[in-house]
Amino acid sequence: DAVLDYPEVQVDSQDGFLRLAYRNDTLLKLDAEDYIKIPAQPIQSVDLSLGIIRFDPIQFSRSISILELAGGLDAATAQIIQQAVQSGQPLPLPAIPPQSAGNFSTDTNPLLQSLEISRGILTLTILNGLPMALDSLVIGVQTVNPGGGQFVHLGVFRYGTIAPGSQAISSINIAGSEVYSSIRMNISKIQSGAQGVSAIIPATSALGLEFRADSVEVVRGLGKIPGQTFDTDTAVFDFTLEDSSVQLQQIQWASGQLNLQAIHNLPLSGQIAIELPDLIGPGGPTTVLLPITTTGTSSATLPLSSTSLLLDRDATRPWNRFRYRLTGRIDSSQTWVSIDSSQSIQIYVHLHQPVFEEVPGAFGQRRIDLPRTRVGLDLSFFQQLEGSFFLANPSFSIESRKSVGVPSALMLEMQASTVDGRIDSLAASPAQQTIQHPAVPRQTAVSTLSFNRNNSRLPYLISLPPDTLSLSGGIQINHIPGAQSNFIRSDSKLEVGLSFDLPFELSLTNFGFVDTIDAPKGLFDDVLEAQLNFNATSTFPFQLNLKMMFLDSLGSTIHEEDLSLIPAASTDAQGRVVSPVSSRSALHIDRMEIERARLANRWALGVQLNTSGSGTTPVRLYNDYFLRLKTGVELHTQY
Fold first, then answer.
1. Neighbours of 189 (CB within 10 A)
2. Which of 152, 451, 618, 626 has the fewest CB atoms within 10 Å of its CB?
3. Alpha-carbon span 242 to 244, nearest angstrom
4. 561, containing H or E segment
């Protein structure tokens, strides 16, 4: 009757054995973000340098007629040539003794004004359109700054014999030179020994000069820039995580954005290709095209849902890093532009509001502290009783359901506190208990950790009895030394439930209760002596001692009597009572005690229970146990 009003008390349907059960299925819970948090990544940037500008080829040309050439020769030679041209008749070709022929300039190249050359070869092709052979030709080449008129020396071309109607080719290195829109030539030596040969010298006879600069790379310049492609640059994006020991290998995204922005100062149009070989979408690796515009800014936003980001493709550090390659292309300019190889395009990369679907990797070794949880146990029926009891075989279990692919151990700390302020600890052994985890994603591993009298102080703890259990501790992830292969999904979680099982298998020492009644009026009037007779039958495996107290109006005891009421019923090896036990006993009250009883306002009847062996022998309680107590009174009156 004392315990069956409590809903936590259960009765075994087969034999009626009593036990106290308590269950909390959501004692504590960890979600995916408790294991791994991927915050929005700070903006990272890289410069895509324009680099060397290619002009290929650059051409200049000039045709020097026989009369222009003669104008620069000595007077005698010039006169002979001029007369021969004017006559239009075959005449002996004049000899040209070694001498200079003056300065000549090429036509203007319409594609450039000035270029600073870092690499290039300038080739001069001479076409001898004169009727006489040239035995030697030396031409110094300069370029002219149109802004200041300064001459910049480029080099000297030297030729041997050039037969009439034939070509001769020579090249010089112009790396480190400045080239402007035209070339000035100084024919420092021309020689021909053509005596004795007769021929007509047409006025159209000329030396043809073709300049061609090949493999030209320009550091900076002013010109009409030809279209070209930048050199490819490879950059890496390093993840920033709250725990630097976490090494992610791949992320399957549920949502989020990858923001890309290009800012530049190029006076050109074109396009930037951003290759993301490690961001795999439904169609494979991702490429983003950003225009180079006159506004100087372009951007793109990539949704991350249904994509996977590979973070282990960089051999130098195969975790928490993905690569991207940048390639620029500029279009040909139709107007004059000033351009510099140091000009660049700055690329900004930002991971915004990332939410993962699944993440494999190594999550490091660390502890996740659990929130302190208080469990109130409704054991108030024990607190109504006196004495002490000891539960022989209590147990509780921690049941976990885990869909997080991380080896983990539970460190549980439990304290019990009583209403009178006593506190004690569970002191479970071992303190670290392994929690099962799934081997592959989308599975849930279930495990149970049991604590009983063999691996904890639970019997003592429960026998306080407690009013509140306080649980705390932590989850140690990757508690096994060595490299770990972990995985987690966005819906992964660890749920821990707590179950108490307190079988009523116990030992009692002076354990009991007291009940009071109003004293019967006039019962002891004219009574000289009295005797209370008790007839008791019990199936409880407890020795019962009776204490009878007479209380005055203030509740103070004015007299008390003790009586051994009934011995404990015998039990079998399982602690079950074999058969009821009966006993007769009597309590004698003499004349002096009668006087005290007349003054009593209330009677208090207390029962104390002890198991055999001075309260050390555990016994079991069943719902069919009973105590029947019959009381009779014998009175000796004065009549």
1. 16
2. 626
3. 6
4. strand 557-566
